[in-house]
Specification:
By secondary structure, this protein is mostly beta strands. It has one domain (18-132): Thrombin, subunit H (Beta Barrel). It is built from one helix and eight strands; from the N terminus they run E-E-E-E-E-E-E-H-E. A six-stranded antiparallel beta barrel has the order 2-3-4-7-6-5. Strand 5 and strand 6 (76-89) form a beta hairpin. The chain is globular, with a radius of gyration of 15 Å. The termini are far apart.
Length: 133
């Protein structure tokens, strides 16, 4: 059976950037596990993570925060308010067995957080052509 793909409308508002340096993020209070940042924009980011015992269904009553770190810990950005947009099992990659992809949208950031996020994007990423978040 052939499955038809629906044409989707582009919803991205901000340019997306691939993280070039090793960087990771943690979502709290759900988990203290770190996830590999796949891409980031001014509006949010996507990450791969291996699920543990944390709940996969997220209550809207829980305030979620994201913490971003460079592997060498020369950069850290703490307590970014977020909202999970999607959280799905990755497919068809043997090396990604058991991994999930979580996409999050940033909430209202302080000026300091916006400045630090801009610094992270300027110094730890490369531009992805024709991609918008």
């Amino acid at each position: 059976m052939t499955r038809k793909r629906r044409k989707t409308t582009e919803r991205r508002r901000h340019q997306r950037f691939k993280v070039q340096e090793d960087a990771f993020a943690m979502v709290t209070p759900l988990s203290a596990k770190r996830g590999e940042i796949l891409d980031v924009s001014k509006g949010g980011l996507a990450l791969h993570y291996v699920p543990g015992k944390e709940k996969t269904k997220i209550s809207i009553e829980i305030d979620l925060f994201l913490h971003i770190f460079s592997r060498d810990i020369n950069f850290c950005l703490l307590r970014l308010p977020i909202r999970t947009i999607s959280d799905v099992q990755t497919e068809d990659e043997v090396s990604d067995e058991g991994k999930r992809r979580r996409s999050v949208e940033f909430g209202a950031l302080s000026q300091g957080q916006e400045d630090q996020l801009k610094y992270f994007i300027d110094n730890y990423t490369i531009k992805l052509e024709a991609c918008r978040i």
